Automatic annotation (TrEMBL):
<feature type="domain" description="Ig-like">
    <location>
        <begin position="2"/>
        <end position="99"/>
    </location>
</feature>
<keyword id="KW-0796">Tight junction</keyword>
<keyword id="KW-0472">Membrane</keyword>
<keyword id="KW-0325">Glycoprotein</keyword>
<keyword id="KW-0965">Cell junction</keyword>
<dbReference type="InterPro" id="IPR036179">
    <property type="entry name" value="Ig-like_dom_sf"/>
</dbReference>
<dbReference type="GO" id="GO:0007155">
    <property type="term" value="P:cell adhesion"/>
</dbReference>
<feature type="region of interest" description="Disordered">
    <location>
        <begin position="23"/>
        <end position="101"/>
    </location>
</feature>
<feature type="compositionally biased region" description="Polar residues">
    <location>
        <begin position="53"/>
        <end position="63"/>
    </location>
</feature>
<keyword id="KW-0732">Signal</keyword>
<dbReference type="InterPro" id="IPR003598">
    <property type="entry name" value="Ig_sub2"/>
</dbReference>
<comment type="similarity">
    <text>Belongs to the immunoglobulin superfamily.</text>
</comment>
<dbReference type="GO" id="GO:0005923">
    <property type="term" value="C:bicellular tight junction"/>
</dbReference>
<keyword id="KW-0393">Immunoglobulin domain</keyword>
<comment type="subunit">
    <text>Interacts with the ninth PDZ domain of MPDZ. Interacts with the first PDZ domain of PARD3. The association between PARD3 and PARD6B probably disrupts this interaction. Interacts with ITGAL (via I-domain). Interacts with CD151.</text>
</comment>
<dbReference type="GO" id="GO:0050892">
    <property type="term" value="P:intestinal absorption"/>
</dbReference>
<dbReference type="GO" id="GO:0005886">
    <property type="term" value="C:plasma membrane"/>
</dbReference>
Length: 101
């Protein structure tokens, strides 16, 4: 079963230096989909240190649970976030975009 449209849970505001948790959920897909996160339209790599665009960020990303945890969150993490659910059936589905300040 292809995934349906995932739901992104993004805090609208986060305190710099604190922990911020973003969650992506999708109920229909079988096999269960894996999740990707995007900031301002750019995919977040699994390891922020692997990408010049994200090396200032400190986060962990679990593609299986859909959790993106900033620990700590920084001012440069402000942006528009959306997630994408995909399995090997059908095409990937994107969530709505949410802004985190």
């Amino acid at each position: 079963v292809p995934p349906g449209k995932p739901v992104a849970h993004v805090p609208s505001s986060a305190t710099v230096g604190a922990r911020a948790v973003l969650r992506c959920s999708e109920e229909q897909g079988s096999p269960p989909p894996t999740f990707r996160w995007y900031k301002d339209g750019t995919e977040l790599p699994r390891d922020p240190k692997s990408s010049p665009a994200f090396r200032n960020s400190s986060y962990s990303l679990d593609p299986t649970s859909g959790e993106l945890v900033f620990e700590p969150v920084g001012g440069w993490d402000t942006g528009d976030y959306h997630c994408e659910a995909s399995n090997n059936v059908g095409s990937p589905q994107k969530s709505d975009v949410f802004r985190m300040e």
